[in-house]
Specification:
Blueprint: E1 9-12, H1 17-28, E2 33-37, E3 51-55, H2 64-68, E4 73-76, H3 86-106, E5 113-117, H4 143-157, E6 164-168, E7 171-173, H5 181-188, E8 191-195, E9 201-202, E10 204-206, H6 207-219, E11 227-229, E12 236-237, H7 238-249, E13 254-258, H8 260-277, H9 285-291, E14 295-296, H10 301-307, H11 315-328
Parallel strand pairs: 1-2, 1-4, 2-3, 4-5, 5-6, 6-11, 7-10, 8-13, 9-14
Antiparallel strand pairs: 9-12
């Protein structure tokens, strides 16, 4: 008799930027993948083979029991990164996580692993260039960060806590991203805008490296019940990030610094335009609150020691890969 197929891995948010790369990596590793997608989700970046689709919505709590049937591992990527209100962040990030956890707990055989993709924003900025460790006291600054921290708390309070893994990536960039893409757009025009005086430093990870970190969290037994920052080993300044992108594009870039108050006003104006269009954008007062902090850095040492995870792409390689995709996809010209 043929061996029974391995149970599937359920990925929420699989049609999004990070989720689609996670799905690709899992399929490449030979996993059976089931993607939870909404009726409105675009499937353009999902693999054509090797996946199953399940219709549902974590925020509304619909379709979850059916999607979880027979699932061995859950990778929870779905969430809200841009919204007009605090309530919308909590609905997408906290309530969605709570709904998914409750549905897991209802299963006759709950998943043996729950990988939750959180964010450095849940912990907050570092007071200086010294990177934060996982046990740093949380001090999120924004609605997004506070909602992601609340979701982490829900994971730890659930009956799945002992089998859960929490990953906290910092700035994520790469093919299909629309947020850091705006930085690349600005650089392609020869301009880099910063807020306030002095260099700002941040930890970062290319999305393909993040997808690999998720795979490690799925398979590594040492990860059970643990939390990890996953990032390149050394932070970078936004100026160095922009200059690297400019070098790849063969551009010269001019840096402009604007005062925090002016940036906050610009954020308010951008929000007003976004409301008229009915779609939140990357520029907002909440983002300005984050951007005016000089240090968003974390220490990925625990992931290296316990998961054996190290990023494969350095800054230039990651940017080259991202820009090649944007150019091929006709998102950017230079």
């Amino acid at each position: 008799m043929a061996n029974a197929p391995d149970p599937p891995i359920l990925v929420t948010g699989g049609s999004g930027f990070v989720g689609s790369h996670v799905v690709e990596r899992l399929v490449a590793a030979g996993a059976r993948v089931r993607c939870l997608v909404r009726a409105s989700s675009s499937l353009r970046y999902l693999p054509q083979t090797g996946i199953e689709l399940a219709r549902g919505d974590v925020a509304r709590g619909t379709g979850l029991d059916e999607a979880l049937a027979g699932v061995a591992v859950v990778v929870h990527v779905a969430g809200v990164t841009k919204a007009f209100s605090e309530a919308a962040f909590y609905e997408g990030n906290l309530r969605g996580t709570e709904n998914l956890l409750r549905a897991c707990e209802r299963q006759a055989e709950p998943p043996r692993r729950f990988v939750h993709v959180s964010s450095l924003a849940a912990i907050g900025p570092s007071p200086e260039l010294t990177p934060l460790a996982e046990d740093a006291h949380p001090h999120p600054l924004t609605w997004y960060g506070r909602s992601k921290l609340a979701a982490e708390t829900a994971v730890r309070a659930s009956t799945l806590a002992g089998r859960a893994v929490i990953l906290r990536p910092p700035v994520v960039y790469g093919p299909r991203d629309t947020d850091v893409f705006e930085v690349f757009q600005s650089v392609a025009r020869g301009l880099m805008v910063s807020i306030g005086r002095g260099e700002s430093y941040f930890s970062y990870i290319q999305v393909k490296d993040l997808a690999e970190a998720v795979c490690r969290a799925v398979t590594n037994e040492a990860a059970r019940g643990r939390t990890y920052f996953v990032a390149n080993p050394k932070p970078v300044s936004w100026n160095a990030f922009a200059q690297t992108a400019a070098s790849v594009m063969g551009r010269r870039v001019r840096s402009i610094s604007i005062p925090s108050q002016a940036a906050y006003l610009a954020g308010w104006c951008a929000e007003s335009v976004a409301r008229l269009r009915g779609k939140p954008g990357i520029v907002s007062r909440q983002k300005v609150i984050e951007a005016r902090c000089r240090f968003w850095t974390c220490d990925p040492g625990r992931a290296r020691q316990e998961l054996g995870f190290e990023t494969a792409l350095d800054l230039r390689q990651g940017i080259e890969d991202a820009l090649a995709w944007y150019k091929d996809s006709k998102w950017l010209k230079w």
